[in-house]
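User:
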Amino acid sequence: MGGLGVGLGVNDVPIVGQPVAFGAGFIALLVVCFSMYVARYFYFYASTGGALLVLVGLARPVAGYTLGDEHRVFASIVGFVGGRTALVLQAIGNYVGAPLLGLASAALIAVGNPWAVLFGATFLSLLALLVALNPLAFTIPLLVVLGLGATLFYGSGAQQAFAAAFVAWFLLLAGTLGAFRIPGLGGGPNTLAGKTFIPGFLWQLLFIGVAIVALIVGGQLLLRPGYDIV
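Assistant: Predicted structure:
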């Protein structure tokens, strides 16, 4: 049976500790490790989404974002008190966005709501389309909307469950790999060091630590029935 209504039925499909969780994790690992040239753009998009969410949380207007080999988030942050703090939080959100979004997705699946993962990813990608400033920045969220949207409307419960688990695993795995490659993405910790006077290597360790913890906890949530975040 297809249709958006099945999206709610997917919450009754077992995922945690089931073959769907292991299978989605294995496929996500293959994509991240052997198709990183393509997968990196989805990782860049997810990490940029973390910075955009920070700006939204700070109630700052978002001018838009671009996506490419290097990505940036443009926001109207000039002329208000606490500008340095906002810039630091935005940068942190950029580097921890993917693993933390993956952990949130795994937690939603663990509490029996994988439909929220698919709907959330689709909805946020629709919003991202509105502030895309270059063709690639428009194309990546459009692909997410089309892929997950088709799954929401036409996929079976099992297909929706697999898609939700894949989203969680991809964010966790790509986020961990990305944390180790931050220096190659355009400054990263060194930029934050200049804004906070905290050494860049400490920022690097922080981002790696967050990604590894998110992967471990998220993996437990997806693979171990009854596992809870203490």
